[in-house]
């Protein structure tokens, strides 16, 4: 009996040549996966090494000054961190309601024919180059929205226009992820609610939305990570390319972490000035990496906590 079972197992495993090919393919995929891990680890280690040298050269106390002017040796982390949070906050105030509203409509209210039309359009909007939205932000969003409704006398380049532009950029991403999460909710839950006499609005708000909350939270946090990492919109619309004094006023020019890196590293021979200016790029990159990593870890914990299985 044991011999028969052993023979059947060998037949299921296939010929030696086939098993050899499978081992080769498995080795190739393992090598590719390991290479991606090694590359990521190398990048992080390089950031840490240069960032430590930067902090050691200028001192921790010099990271709290009156502004961010790296070519003059003024490195105030608060300036770029607050600017990043202001732009991200404004962007999410735009992207969260618009994106979730679009997701609810596409998932629950749109007819199949309309959804097939609107879904590709939404994804095309997500593919618009960010530099185009940057130009759109300071040429139209600033005078028509920020200056007219939010500030009254805004600077031509300001964090408010950059934030609204980032919100427009992030909206399709939030909408797509949230819509996929809502459509993954079993139809039986909707049918049960309709069977009890619930209207579509009640079913959407009290059944579908809570059931898809893990995917919705993930959509918002992924959108936030995308907003923090956006470069071209804030570099063009935010102004302050040469540096910025500390300010949280969204009606005035400001500096974000990505904008600071772009302004300093634009053109390889232009990272001039203070001796630590070049190393500050690595320091800002490490802070940006830790910020986005923290958001991703937080997203994973929240999703695991609120996830519902059906």
Any overview of this molecule?
With 310 residues, the chain is mainly α. The chain folds into two domains: 2-58; 62-306, MetI-like fold (Orthogonal Bundle), CATH 1.10.3720. It is built from twelve helices and three strands; from the N terminus they run ααββααααααααβαα. It has helices spanning 2-13, 16-58, 77-109, 112-126, 130-151, 159-183, 187-195, 200-211, 213-229, 232-237, 257-265, 277-306, and strands at 67-69, 74-75, 244-245. The protein has a three-stranded antiparallel β-sheet. Helix 3 (77-109) packs parallel to helix 6 (159-183) and helix 4 runs antiparallel to helix 6 (159-183). The chain is globular, with a radius of gyration of 25 Å. The mean pLDDT is 86.
Features:
three-stranded antiparallel sheet; mainly alpha; 310 residues; 2 domains; 12 helices; MetI-like fold; 2% strand
Please give a quick description of this structure.
This protein is mostly helical and 310 residues long.
Could you give the topology of this structure?
Elements: H1 2-13, H2 16-58, E1 67-69, E2 74-75, H3 77-109, H4 112-126, H5 130-151, H6 159-183, H7 187-195, H8 200-211, H9 213-229, H10 232-237, E3 244-245, H11 257-265, H12 277-306
Antiparallel strand pairs: 1-2, 1-3
């Amino acid at each position: 009996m044991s011999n028969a079972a052993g023979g059947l197992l060998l037949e299921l495993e296939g010929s030696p040549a086939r098993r050899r090919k499978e081992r080769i393919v498995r080795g190739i995929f393992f090598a590719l996966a390991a290479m991606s891990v090694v590359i990521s680890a190398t990048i992080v280690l390089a950031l840490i090494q240069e960032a430590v040298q930067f902090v050691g050269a200028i001192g921790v106390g010099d990271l709290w000054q009156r502004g961010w002017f790296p070519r003059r040796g003024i490195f105030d982390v608060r300036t770029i961190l607050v600017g990043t949070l202001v732009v991200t906050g404004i962007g999410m105030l735009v992207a969260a309601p618009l994106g979730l509203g679009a997701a609810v409509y596409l998932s629950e209210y749109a007819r199949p024919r309309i959804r097939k039309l609107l879904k590709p359009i939404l994804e095309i909007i997500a593919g618009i180059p960010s530099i185009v939205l940057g130009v759109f932000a300071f040429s139209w969003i600033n005078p028509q929205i920020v200056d007219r409704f939010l500030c009254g006398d805004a600077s031509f380049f300001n964090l408010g226009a950059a934030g609204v532009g980032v919100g427009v950029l992030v909206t399709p991403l939030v909408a797509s992820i949230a819509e996929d999460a809502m459509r993954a909710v079993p139809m039986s839950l909707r049918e049960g609610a309709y069977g009890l006499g619930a209207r579509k609005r009640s079913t959407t708000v009290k059944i579908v939305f809570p059931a898809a909350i893990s995917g919705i939270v993930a959509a918002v946090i992924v959108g936030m990570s995308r907003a923090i990492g956006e470069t071209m919109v804030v570099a063009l619309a935010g102004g302050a390319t040469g540096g910025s004094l500390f300010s949280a006023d969204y009606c005035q020019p400001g500096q974000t972490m990505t904008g600071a890196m772009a302004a300093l590293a634009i053109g390889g021979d232009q990272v001039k000035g203070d001796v630590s200016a070049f190393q500050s790029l690595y320091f800002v990159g490490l802070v940006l990496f830790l910020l986005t990593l923290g958001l991703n870890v937080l997203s994973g914990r929240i999703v695991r906590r609120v996830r519902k299985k059906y």
